[in-house]
Structure formats: C-alpha cells, structure tokens
Specification:
Chain lengths: ~150, ~150, ~150, ~150
C-alpha cells in the first residue's frame, strides 16, 4: 500500500473515523474539492485525540494549541457526494518541538485509497508563542510513556 | 427591481464590492454553492463598514461584536467559476437592539440580479452577552447622527 | 418552542442527524460561523431523503435537481468546536413548483435550540431549466401518496 | 528567502494577486484556518492563467482539466481577518504528465512571508481520465515555446 517498506501506522495506534461526503464539499468538477480532504484530516485528528484519551478541546483548555506548520496531501482518486469515506489517522515521528500526524482517506465499502497525507504541528500558548511540546501531550498522542 | 415600492438602498448609502468567483465556491451542480453567497454578503458588509469610516475590525477592537441573528437569501440565478460579481450592500431599518444589512449580488458586466438577501445583527460584548447597539456604531453604519 | 401554535414537523416525518462540530467550521469569534449551519441544513436534507427512501443522489441520477431558491435561518445560540449537535429535518408545505424543508439544530445532550430555518427548492433538469416538481419526488419527500 | 540557492520564480513569470482576508476564513484560534491558504493558492493559480493568456476557464472549455494530484504548504505566520494579503504564483518544473505551481502568501504592506507551498497538476479529460499534458497548455503556462 505504500512505496516504502513501512506500513501505515508502523505499529502505532490507528484511529478510524467514517462519515458521508457533503454536497458543499464538492466542486464544479463533480467531485470533492481538494481542500475538503484537509478538513477531513482535521476531523480524523480530533477523533484520534479523543480515542487516546486527550481530546483536543482539553488540550486547548489547558492553554496549549497544536498549530499546523505543514500540511501535504497526495490525491489518488476523487470522492463523490454521499460517498461513505473513512479517515485513518496515526501519529508518526516528530521533533522536540513538533508532532506529525499521518492520514489516509479511503472509500469505506471497498477500501480504495483516495488521499494520503500528513500534517506537522507545533505547540504554542494561547497567544501563539511557540513552546516545547508538553510531555503530557506528546506521551498521550504517541502512546509512549513520558521519560 | 423589488416587489415593494421601495428601491434597494431606499436613499441610504450603497457600497459596491467586486470580485471573481473562486473554484472552491462552486459545487457539483457546476455553479456556485448557495452558502457561498452568504460569505459574499459578509465580504460586502466588511467593505460597507470600511466605506462609512468604521471598519468592522475596529468595532471588535473596542469590545463590540455584531453577531448574525438572522440571515435570508433568495437565489434568482447562479454565478459560475470566474464570473466577475458585485455585492451591493446597504443598511436598512433596525430595532433598538439590532441593525439590518441588505444585499444584492449581481453579474458585473450586465447587472443581472443573482441573489438578494439580508442579515440582522445584534450587538454583544466579547463574551457574547447581548447589549444595546452602541449609538456610535448605529450612527456610523446608518449614516444618521446620534441623538 | 415556536411562536405559532404549530409544532415543528406538524405531524409529518422528522429525521434526526447527529455529528460533531469541526474546527474548520468555527470562526474568530470562537464559535461556529453562521454559514456552517446552512451546510448542516444540507446534511440534514441528505439524510432526510435517504430516510424516506429517495436518496438525493438518486434524484440527480434520474435527471432532476432540487435547487435552493430561498434559504433563511435564525441563530439563537452558538455551537462550539467538538459540540455534538443534531439537525432535525422535516418537509413542510410547498407550491406546484417548490418544496420547503424546515430545520432545527440542537445540542444533543440537552436539546438546546441553536438555529432554526428553512430552505425552498425548485425542480430543474440537469441543464438548470425549472420544471414542475415530479410527483414521484414530491410524494416520496412529503410522505403523501401521488394523486 | 529560500533555503536553496534558487529564488522564488527562478527567472520565470511571477503573478501577484491581492485581496483581503474574509471573516469566514478565520477559525476559533482567531487567525486564518490553514485550509483557507490552499483556497488562496487556487485564486493565485486562476489569476496566473489569466495573466499568461490562457484563463483556466478556457482550458476547461476545450475539454482539459488540470486536477490537483499533490498539495503542500508550510505555514510560517498567521494572517488575520481583514489583512490585505498577496499571493505570488509561478510555474516550476514538471514531468511529461504534470505541471507544478509554486506559491507564496505575504502580507502586502510589509512583505512578511506567511505561507509557502506548491501544487502538482495532471491533465485529464472531462471524464477524469489522465492524459498527456497538452503542449499548448504547457507552453502557455510555462512561457516556453512548444517544441
């Protein structure tokens, strides 16, 4: 499924979120507008944080924001209005300052890969100042114990 | 142009804002998605407040928000990708607590009426509590001197 | 709940659709942008058509489009990121040429009414020409037998 | 301005498009939602095609679509509501089947770099089948004479 020897998730947790394509998400090509998939990545990210026990709303409640510093997507095949799609989300490697989420969007009924991509997130306080990624946040999202 | 005897603007100021239709604003019907026109109303509102000397950003800077409490639109004809459209914005009647903006979206080259509508706005503080519409705001937006 | 003596749905079918608020649907006021609710109306409409046995995708497949000719919404209270909301959708009165959908958006956990509204739809062919509302479509959506 | 020795545009044509940030483009962080910048890339692309004499609308009119197969963006600093921003667009290298557009989003008044990125496009017919990039399209967009 991937060019590299590693498979998606690479042993880490994968959280799946399914929903239907909205009409508003399509464009005049008759298929889903490419930016809609990045909104879906965000939906997957929200559900990932809930599944690992640290809902993103709680992250913000303690004064930390995970801002997007990079987003990339490869568009393999288009989704269409009313398709039932699933976003698969996992957390990959990062740096001291960042965390990387990786995503796959697939048709639910047959698993066809539609879009793959990743986003890189830095931690900031509520005023937007970059800070070190809090260990509690990193530990919760990567599933690794804090040092 | 209107069913009633009154014409659009009714003697008050009309501010025109022109721009091109974005691909992202279309949907699978091949034309502009109906909710995009309400985003354009908001663009027209922003430019109206700038034109009368009280940019909306400054309204928020002094701790007042004009929240939308009602929005209505009639869709007469569709706009298409790359069309040059113009939003005509005016401020109509209101109550002690509200202000009403009215809008027309037209094709720029021949004036064809595409969409008409209005939004009603209440004043709140930054925490969302409704307050009386500040006279300075009402006077600036309606062009009438404060009492 | 309504100013008139009639209750929402008025005896007709009500279809409920629940989902979570997306981050992309919020704006700088910290709450959901008002146009997002109209996208949710559309989500409710899609699920209504599925529930009554005539999914909108099939309507388009037979060459009929239900285009939005009017949309109105009243915004009572704001939804926030990650809130679980429910859209309640019903079909009301119409004319020979139109059908009216009515909507309520509520917080799921306590039923607080956030937004109410309606959309009016005309039938067109795939080229956008208005036609009489097909009886099969009207019967399916209103739950009344064709004459 | 760039880590590599090459400067943006690398000698090719750069087309600038300026506009104001819309309220609808912000999110609950108080700044522009990251997916909005990709919509702006598309606006820049549209204006680039117009500036080089082959408006994208005409590309579609002759039965060719330039579909997005990859999109990447780096987010350096956030834009805010009502900021006047400029999108700088250029066409870079490509393959036989693809064209790459590159973008910078800057604050207009002082040139601060907000976002940079690129999109890769493949040519398809109107049914979505990938085809070789038509030489007329490639020549017009890259500014190089067809072979």
């Amino acid at each position: 499924m991937e060019a590299s020897g590693r498979s998606f998730g690479d042993g880490g947790r994968i959280v799946e979120t399914a929903f239907r394509v909205r009409y508003a998400e399509t464009d005049a090509m008759g298929v889903v507008h490419h930016t809609s998939y990045l909104v879906w990545f965000e939906v997957g990210r929200t559900e990932y944080t809930r599944a690992v026990g640290l809902p993103y709303r709680e992250v913000e409640d303690v004064g930390v924001r995970l801002v997007v510093v990079e987003a990339c997507a490869q568009f393999h095949r288009p989704a269409r209005y009313d398709d039932l799609v699933v976003v698969r989300t996992t957390v990959g490697e990062g740096t001291k300052a960042t965390l990387t989420f990786r995503y796959e969007v697939r048709l639910q009924w047959d698993g066809t890969l539609l879009v793959s991509g990743h986003t890189v997130h830095a931690a900031t306080d509520l005023s937007g100042r970059v800070q070190r990624m809090p260990e509690r946040v990193r530990a919760a999202l990567t599933g690794r114990a804090p040092p």
